[in-house]
Amino acid sequence: MARTDAIVLGAGIVGTCVALHLAKRGLAVALIDRAGVGEQTSFGNAGIIEGNTVFPPAFSSDLAALLRIALKRAGEANYHLSFLPKIAPWLLAFRAASQPQRLIETAHLIRPLFASAVREHEALLSEAGAGHYLRKTGWLKVYRKARSFAGLRREFDLAAEFGLPLQALDLGGAQTLEPSLAPVFEHAVLWPQAASVSNPYGVTRAYAASFRALGGVVVAGDARSLHRSGQHWRVETDEGGLDAPQVVVALGPWAGDWLTCVGLRLPFAVKRGYHRHFTAQGNAALTRPVLDADVGYVITPMEMGIRMTTGVEFAPRDAPPTPVQFDRVMPRARELFPLGPRADNTTWMGCRPCFPDSRPVIGRAPGLSGVWLAIGHAHWGLTLGPATGRLISEMMAGETSFVDPAPYRAERFLS
Ligand SMILES: Cc1cc2nc3c(=O)[nH]c(=O)nc-3n(C[C@H](O)[C@H](O)[C@H](O)COP(=O)(O)OP(=O)(O)OC[C@H]3O[C@@H](n4cnc5c(N)ncnc54)[C@H](O)[C@@H]3O)c2cc1C
Fold it and tell me: pLDDT (tens digit, 9 = 90+) per residue, 288-339?
C-alpha cells in the first residue's frame, strides 16, 4: 500500500465496518488485527440486529431477582465473588444509569442510531452479496410470569411514541409464529423491527471481503505498538511499520487496556457471555431468535444448529471460562423448546465491551489528535457495526452525519 490514510485497529464487526465505510469514501485504509477477522467477540453472538431497542439493559430493582443473582441461581447473571470489589464502581455507575428517568433519556438519545441498524446492514449485505444471512423475521420474547409482561408497560408506551411496531401475543399467537415452542408461557412480544443473521462470523467476513475489494488491506499486527511518528501515527505490523494521519481504535473488549495505556480514564468494563449449539429433536425448528425473558437466555437458529447464548457474567476478562449459567437454564430451556444433543463440543466465551450507560463511544479520542474511538458496543456490536462505521466515517470526512453523534462522545464521562 503506497499511502495509508487511516489505520483501523481491531477487525471485529465494528472495526471491519469502520474500515469498509472509510474505504467506500475513497480512503486508503489498513485494518490491523493480531487474530483473524471477526474471530473474537463478533464470532459468537446471538446474531440479533436489535432495531427494536427502546431501553438499554438495566440494573435490576427487583429484590427477588437480585437475591437469585446473589445466590448464583439466576440465568441472566453470574459473577466471580473475588471480582466484585474491582467491578463495584462500574456497577454503581450502571445502577445510577438505570434510574427510570435516565433510562428514558437514554432511550431517546439512542433511538436514531438503532432505527438505522437493519437498513445499514441490509445495504452492506446486499453490496457484499451476502443477503442470504439476513432474516427479517423479528425477535420473539416470551414471558412466563404475568408480572414480567405487565412490567413492559413503559416500554410499550415509549415504543408507541417512537412509532416502533410490536405485537403483544398470547400463547396461541406465539405458537402460530413458532409452532415448536411448548406451552410454558402465557405472554409473548414480537418485535418485527429486529432482524437476525444466521452466522455473525460469516457476516463480518463478508464485510471484510467488500473492504478488500475496494483496495483495503488487512494486516497482522499488535495495536499496543501504536505510537506517534512525526505528524503521523505508526503501528508495527508483520509487514513492517505502517504510518497514517488518522487512527480508529475498535479493539472491542481489549479497548480498556489501550485506554489505560494512553491515560484516558473512561468507565469501561466487560460482561462475559457464552454460547453452545444444539440440535433440534425431530422436526422441531425455529425461524427467529427467542428470548426466554424470565429465565435469562436466548435461542437462535444458526447455520451451526440452535445457538443458545447466556446472560452476563462479571468476571475478569481473561479468567478461565465458568459457563455455569447453562446448568441453571438448561432444564427450563428444554421445557420451552425440544433441544436435542449438543451440535458442538466446545463452549464459546466472548466479552461484551461496555460503558455503564450502555452507549458506545463513537468519535474523537479526547486529547489525542487524529485518534478516533469506536468502542463499548456492549450488547449491540453486531446491531450497530454498520451504523457506527457510517457515522464515524462521515465525521472523519467532515460530512454532515446521518445521526447526531453527540450522545456517543467520550467527553460525557470526563466532565
Ligand atoms: C453471548 C453474547 C451474545 C451477544 N449477542 C448479540 C446480539 O445478538 N446482537 C448484537 O448486536 N450484539 C450481541 N453481542 C455483542 C457483540 O457481540 C459485541 O458488541 C461485538 O461483537 C463487539 O464487536 P467489536 O468489533 O467491538 O469487538 P471484537 O469482535 O472483539 O473485535 C475486537 C478485535 O480487536 C482485536 N484486538 C484486540 N487487541 C488487539 C491488539 N493488541 N492488537 C491487534 N488487535 C487486537 C481482536 O483480535 C478482535 O478481533 C453479544 C455478545 C455476547 C458475548
Answer: 999 999 999 999 999 999 999 999 999 999 999 999 999 999 999 999 999 9
Whether pTM exceeds 0.90: yes
Closest-CA residue, ligand 1 atom 30, reads: 41
Which residues' Cβ are closer than 6 Å to ligand 1? 10-15, 32-35, 39-42, 45-48, 50, 222-224, 250-254, 273, 275, 309, 350, 352-353, 377-383
d(CA 147, CA 130): 41
Q: Tell me the three cell numbers of residue 27.
A: 480512503
User: How does pLDDT run across 84-113, given as a tens digit for each residue?
Assistant: 999 999 999 999 999 999 999 999 999 999
